[in-house]
């Protein structure tokens, strides 16, 4: 098993075609076929099914693909770190951003790294907290923002921000930032809810249980953007962090107010792996992401949030 074979596996899997993979790898088609067959002989199992629709991974192929991608990424990282220009921090850093905060943080983070550390190749992934934590545990992320998480045996966690949750409604509801809305009043509305298993859904369900209030669910989704779209269309209200709806409130497409009775808070932390060597490039991105979070708060771009960071 060698690097060329792993590259062939990944490229064929991504394109579904030996012909297209050969074009991307600048090889002739028989050479790619030989590399795949050599892998299959080495492992003693088929990695692809040859179908009319193209090359489809077997179960064994799916297992190898995940690890092949990780191995190739680690080799790219090593090459970038070993061959830096004098005095320059280099490397590949993959950072996870929460879906609700990505619009606020992604562009300033990328711009700052490109300006001050052009030797760092930054890869930005966005998702919900549960997915980001799994990717961090699996080694697919070097650092990530997460919600409401304490340290774990595998992760270091640094508290950064805590933020209030807001009731979000169509403009006609007339919600205003200066007039908090009781949770019971929001629960009386049909609600567009995050899907079960989402951290925000867990907070809402816990608040309803404490208040002894039943929640009428109009729809469920795993997308913040779909939540907002359904609210705009009149399917109900929803509950979101202020950072996720600031622009919508500013342009008048939604109205919103902080929740009260009880006030709901959630915390945002920075997670990094406990194990393994942390590359200098990762330290640079950790520092810059923390700075961007603090800067967003100081500029008033993160509604009803406050810093909770420490030096841990």
From TrEMBL:
PANTHER family: HTH-TYPE TRANSCRIPTIONAL REGULATOR YBHD (PTHR30419). This is LysR family transcriptional regulator. Keywords: DNA-binding, Transcription, Transcription regulation. Belongs to the LysR transcriptional regulatory family. It holds the Pfam family LysR_substrate. GO terms for cellular component: cytosol. Residues 1-58 form the HTH lysR-type domain. GO terms for molecular function: DNA binding; DNA-binding transcription factor activity. It comes from the Bacteria.
């Amino acid at each position: 098993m060698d690097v060329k074979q792993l590259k062939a596996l990944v490229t064929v899997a991504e394109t579904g075609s030996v012909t297209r993979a050969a074009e991307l790898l600048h090889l002739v088609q028989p050479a790619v076929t030989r590399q795949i067959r050599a892998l299959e002989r080495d492992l003693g199992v088929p990695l692809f099914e040859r179908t009319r629709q193209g090359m489809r991974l077997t179960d064994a192929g799916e297992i190898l693909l995940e690890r092949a991608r990780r191995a190739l990424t680690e080799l790219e990282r090593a090459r970038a770190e070993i061959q830096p220009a004098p005095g320059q921090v280099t490397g590949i850093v993959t950072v996870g951003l929460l879906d609700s905060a990505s619009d606020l943080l992604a562009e300033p983070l990328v711009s700052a790294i490109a300006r001050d550390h052009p030797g760092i190749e930054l890869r930005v992934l966005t998702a919900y907290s549960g997915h980001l934590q799994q990717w961090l545990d699996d080694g697919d992320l070097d650092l990530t923002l997460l919600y409401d998480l304490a340290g774990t045996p595998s992760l270091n966690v640094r508290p950064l921000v805590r933020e209030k949750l807001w009731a979000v409604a169509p403009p006609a509801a007339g919600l205003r930032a200066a007039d908090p809305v009781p949770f019971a009043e929001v629960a009386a509305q049909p609600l567009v809810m995050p899907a079960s298993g989402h951290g925000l859904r867990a907070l809402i369900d816990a608040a309803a249980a404490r208040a002894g209030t039943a929640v009428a669910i109009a729809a469920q989704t795993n997308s913040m953007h779909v939540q907002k779209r359904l609210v705009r269309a009149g399917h109900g209200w929803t509950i979101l962090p202020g950072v996720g709806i600031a622009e919508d409130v500013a342009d008048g497409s939604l109205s919103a107010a902080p929740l009260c009775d009880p006030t709901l808070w959630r915390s945002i932390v920075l997670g990094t792996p406990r194990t393994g060597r942390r590359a200098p490039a990762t330290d640079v991105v950790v520092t810059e992401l923390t700075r961007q979070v603090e800067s967003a708060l100081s500029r008033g771009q993160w509604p009803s949030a406050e810093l909770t960071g420490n030096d841990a």
